[in-house]
Amino acid sequence: MPFVSASIxxxxxxxAQQEGLSLESLVHHAESKELKExxxxxxxxxxxxxxxxxxxxxxxxxxxxxxxxxESDDYGTLGLSWRTCWLAREVLDRLxxxxxxxxxxxxxxxxxxxxFTRLTLVRDAFRKGLxxxxxxxxxxxxxxxxxxxxxxxxPIEVCFxxxxxxxxxxxxxxxxEVVFDASDYAIVFKTEELNIPTIKxxxxxxxFLDERMDEEKKGIHxxxxxxxxxxxxxxxxxxxxxxxxxxxxxxxxxxxxxTLKRRLSDKGLTFRDYVQKIQRxxxxxxxxxxxxxxxxxxxxxxxxxxSAFNRAFKRWMGQSPVDYRRSA
Length: 328
Description:
Layout: E1 3-5, H1 6-18, H2 33-36, E2 41-43, H3 44-57, H4 62-69, H5 76-84, H6 89-98, E3 107-113, E4 116-122, H7 128-149, E5 157-159, H8 167-174, E6 177-179, E7 185-190, H9 203-221, H10 224-238, H11 246-252, H12 257-266, H13 271-289, H14 294-300, H15 306-317, H16 321-327
Parallel strand pairs: 5-6
Antiparallel strand pairs: 1-2, 3-4, 4-7, 5-7
Helix pairs in contact: 1-3, 3-7, 4-7, 5-6, 5-9, 11-12, 13-14, 13-16, 14-15
């Protein structure tokens, strides 16, 4: 299950309640194990829930207001690294590299060309809470750039994939064209404006913080077993309809295909091999404990033809499925 830093959730909750969100709306959140234990990270579903309740009960534009109140202090070690990095550009670089310290839902890519730097957020919004989260993210990025440089840095273009009636409010804030119903989530700056020094640049502290963030990142990656559990369940449930693509699975898990591929690679896995591992496990279990025909088992494990299943099984086990069932 995707997670997010609890501090971001807490700030959103306080703002929503200050603006009039009823306390009863969030009572069910008290059952969250992570909130009860005061965990540093919580299920991101809780944050999306706050955003959606705010959208229903409060005035429009909660994503803009949430983003404007977020600052470097809300991002722990990552936020401290933003304040002490050498140039404004390094804020974006560290966000791309260490986004997982805030949330594992989505990823960021940065592309520089022709004097412009484009940051793309790979996190498709399949629900309203995600739309608001993506709005808040871009506002936060702009806020932090202003905070660490002391300058009024503005993008030249902001794009959101979802639709909205709040384009004027966002255009007023960003002081540039804001496009909704765009092809991707992106914010574009003039590269020269990102080469502005920060107020508290300190290279020695930066080195220490980079090492610290690498350690924190390793700790988060230890939660990979949870991702594998979710991935296993999703693939297993999808196989009767055919083998899902890595893009389809990644989108369901709230990340890009590239991110899922990288996180599997960190465990020495490939998506293709992991799918085949699940197919093999399911095949063995069904051959041992069910009376289903070979064609039915082939279908259940993602094969469109029994002959393809037979060939794959023989490659895995060195014998045909029929022979395996006889000897099991």
